[in-house]
Protein backbone atom coordinates (compact mmCIF):
# COMPACT_ATOMS: atom_id res chain seq x y z
CA UNK A 1 0.00 0.00 0.00
CA UNK A 2 1.52 3.34 -1.02
CA UNK A 3 1.91 6.09 1.55
CA UNK A 4 -0.48 8.99 1.19
CA UNK A 5 0.74 12.53 1.37
CA UNK A 6 -0.57 14.75 4.14
CA UNK A 7 -0.84 18.42 3.47
CA UNK A 8 -0.64 20.94 6.28
CA UNK A 9 -1.63 24.56 6.13
CA UNK A 10 1.12 27.01 6.94
CA UNK A 11 0.65 28.84 10.30
CA UNK A 12 -0.34 32.08 8.60
CA UNK A 13 -3.32 30.27 7.01
CA UNK A 14 -4.66 29.35 10.45
CA UNK A 15 -4.45 33.00 11.44
CA UNK A 16 -6.58 34.07 8.46
CA UNK A 17 -9.12 31.30 9.10
CA UNK A 18 -9.59 32.45 12.70
CA UNK A 19 -9.80 36.14 11.78
CA UNK A 20 -12.24 35.43 8.95
CA UNK A 21 -14.49 33.34 11.22
CA UNK A 22 -14.61 36.16 13.79
CA UNK A 23 -16.14 38.45 11.21
CA UNK A 24 -19.40 36.54 11.60
CA UNK A 25 -19.59 36.73 15.41
CA UNK A 26 -22.33 39.05 16.67
CA UNK A 27 -21.94 41.03 19.89
CA UNK A 28 -24.94 41.86 22.05
CA UNK A 29 -25.44 44.66 24.57
CA UNK A 30 -28.01 47.34 25.26
CA UNK A 31 -30.74 47.31 22.70
CA UNK A 32 -29.85 44.22 20.75
CA UNK A 33 -33.17 42.88 19.52
CA UNK A 34 -33.81 39.16 19.63
CA UNK A 35 -35.69 36.30 21.24
CA UNK A 36 -33.92 36.73 24.59
CA UNK A 37 -33.22 40.04 26.31
CA UNK A 38 -32.38 41.50 29.70
CA UNK A 39 -33.17 44.74 31.50
CA UNK A 40 -30.15 46.17 33.29
CA UNK A 41 -29.61 48.31 36.40
CA UNK A 42 -31.13 48.33 39.88
CA UNK A 43 -34.42 46.78 38.75
CA UNK A 44 -32.91 44.29 36.34
CA UNK A 45 -34.72 41.23 35.06
CA UNK A 46 -34.40 38.75 32.21
CA UNK A 47 -37.05 37.70 29.70
CA UNK A 48 -37.28 35.31 26.79
CA UNK A 49 -39.86 34.50 24.14
CA UNK A 50 -41.22 30.98 24.65
CA UNK A 51 -40.57 28.97 21.50
CA UNK A 52 -43.65 26.83 22.21
CA UNK A 53 -45.66 28.46 19.44
CA UNK A 54 -47.65 31.12 21.29
CA UNK A 55 -44.61 33.42 21.70
CA UNK A 56 -45.45 34.13 25.34
CA UNK A 57 -42.98 35.97 27.54
CA UNK A 58 -41.16 34.17 30.37
CA UNK A 59 -39.30 36.38 32.87
CA UNK A 60 -37.04 35.95 35.90
CA UNK A 61 -35.84 38.48 38.46
CA UNK A 62 -32.16 39.26 39.03
CA UNK A 63 -31.83 36.75 41.88
CA UNK A 64 -32.85 33.97 39.48
CA UNK A 65 -34.83 32.42 42.35
CA UNK A 66 -38.31 33.40 41.24
CA UNK A 67 -39.86 32.78 37.86
CA UNK A 68 -42.11 35.71 37.06
CA UNK A 69 -44.15 33.87 34.43
CA UNK A 70 -47.52 34.37 36.10
CA UNK A 71 -46.65 37.97 37.01
CA UNK A 72 -45.94 38.84 33.37
CA UNK A 73 -49.21 37.45 32.00
CA UNK A 74 -50.11 41.04 31.05
CA UNK A 75 -47.29 41.14 28.49
CA UNK A 76 -48.67 40.21 25.05
CA UNK A 77 -47.04 37.63 22.80
CA UNK A 78 -43.88 39.10 21.29
CA UNK A 79 -41.95 38.69 18.04
CA UNK A 80 -38.81 40.47 19.29
CA UNK A 81 -37.38 41.87 22.56
CA UNK A 82 -34.82 44.53 23.46
CA UNK A 83 -33.67 45.55 26.96
CA UNK A 84 -32.63 48.84 28.54
CA UNK A 85 -32.01 50.26 32.03
CA UNK A 86 -34.68 48.47 34.10
CA UNK A 87 -37.18 47.96 31.27
CA UNK A 88 -37.86 45.84 28.19
CA UNK A 89 -39.58 46.64 24.91
CA UNK A 90 -40.80 44.37 22.19
CA UNK A 91 -42.83 44.11 19.04
CA UNK A 92 -46.24 42.52 19.64
CA UNK A 93 -46.57 39.37 17.53
CA UNK A 94 -50.07 39.85 16.12
CA UNK A 95 -50.06 43.60 15.31
CA UNK A 96 -46.39 44.74 15.17
CA UNK A 97 -47.03 47.47 17.78
CA UNK A 98 -44.44 48.41 20.39
CA UNK A 99 -44.93 47.39 24.03
CA UNK A 100 -42.59 48.40 26.88
CA UNK A 101 -42.74 47.40 30.55
CA UNK A 102 -40.72 47.28 33.77
CA UNK A 103 -40.89 45.62 37.18
CA UNK A 104 -42.31 48.73 38.86
CA UNK A 105 -45.31 49.32 36.56
CA UNK A 106 -46.94 45.91 36.17
CA UNK A 107 -49.52 45.89 33.40
CA UNK A 108 -48.71 49.36 32.08
CA UNK A 109 -47.50 49.83 28.51
CA UNK A 110 -44.79 52.48 28.83
CA UNK A 111 -44.93 53.44 25.13
CA UNK A 112 -46.18 57.06 24.80
CA UNK A 113 -49.66 57.49 23.28
CA UNK A 114 -48.14 59.20 20.23
CA UNK A 115 -46.42 55.94 19.23
CA UNK A 116 -48.61 53.29 20.90
CA UNK A 117 -50.68 52.39 17.81
CA UNK A 118 -47.95 52.53 15.14
CA UNK A 119 -46.68 49.32 13.55
CA UNK A 120 -42.94 48.63 13.68
CA UNK A 121 -40.60 46.24 11.91
CA UNK A 122 -37.63 46.67 14.30
CA UNK A 123 -37.14 48.00 17.81
CA UNK A 124 -33.94 48.85 19.69
CA UNK A 125 -33.50 50.12 23.21
CA UNK A 126 -30.75 52.23 24.75
CA UNK A 127 -30.26 53.04 28.41
CA UNK A 128 -33.42 55.18 28.73
CA UNK A 129 -34.64 55.58 25.15
CA UNK A 130 -36.32 53.49 22.46
CA UNK A 131 -36.16 53.76 18.67
CA UNK A 132 -38.33 51.75 16.30
CA UNK A 133 -38.55 51.53 12.51
CA UNK A 134 -42.08 51.86 11.15
CA UNK A 135 -43.42 48.91 9.20
CA UNK A 136 -44.74 45.44 9.87
CA UNK A 137 -42.54 42.89 11.61
CA UNK A 138 -43.79 40.13 9.30
CA UNK A 139 -44.37 42.05 6.04
CA UNK A 140 -41.98 44.25 4.10
CA UNK A 141 -43.19 47.32 2.27
CA UNK A 142 -41.57 50.34 0.65
CA UNK A 143 -44.15 52.61 2.35
CA UNK A 144 -42.41 52.34 5.71
CA UNK A 145 -38.99 53.01 7.13
CA UNK A 146 -39.34 56.20 9.18
CA UNK A 147 -37.90 55.99 12.67
CA UNK A 148 -39.75 56.94 15.86
CA UNK A 149 -37.76 57.51 19.06
CA UNK A 150 -38.91 58.24 22.59
CA UNK A 151 -37.49 58.41 26.11
CA UNK A 152 -38.64 56.48 29.15
CA UNK A 153 -38.37 58.05 32.60
Structure write-up:
It catalyses: L-threonyl-[protein] + ATP = O-phospho-L-threonyl-[protein] + ADP + H(+); L-seryl-[protein] + ATP = O-phospho-L-seryl-[protein] + ADP + H(+). This protein is mainly β. The chain has one domain (27-151). The chain has 2 helices and 9 strands, in the order αββββββαβββ. It has helices at 11-22, 113-116; strands spanning 36-39, 45-49, 57-61, 78-83, 87-92, 98-102, 120-125, 129-134, 147-151. It is globular, with a radius of gyration of 21 Å. The relative contact order is 0.14. Mean pLDDT is 73; it is low at 12-31.
Number of domains: 1
Q: Estimate percent helicity.
A: 10-25%
Structural class: mainly beta
Unreliable sequence segments: 12-31
The helix count comes to 2
What is the gist of this entry?
The protein has 153 residues and is mainly beta.
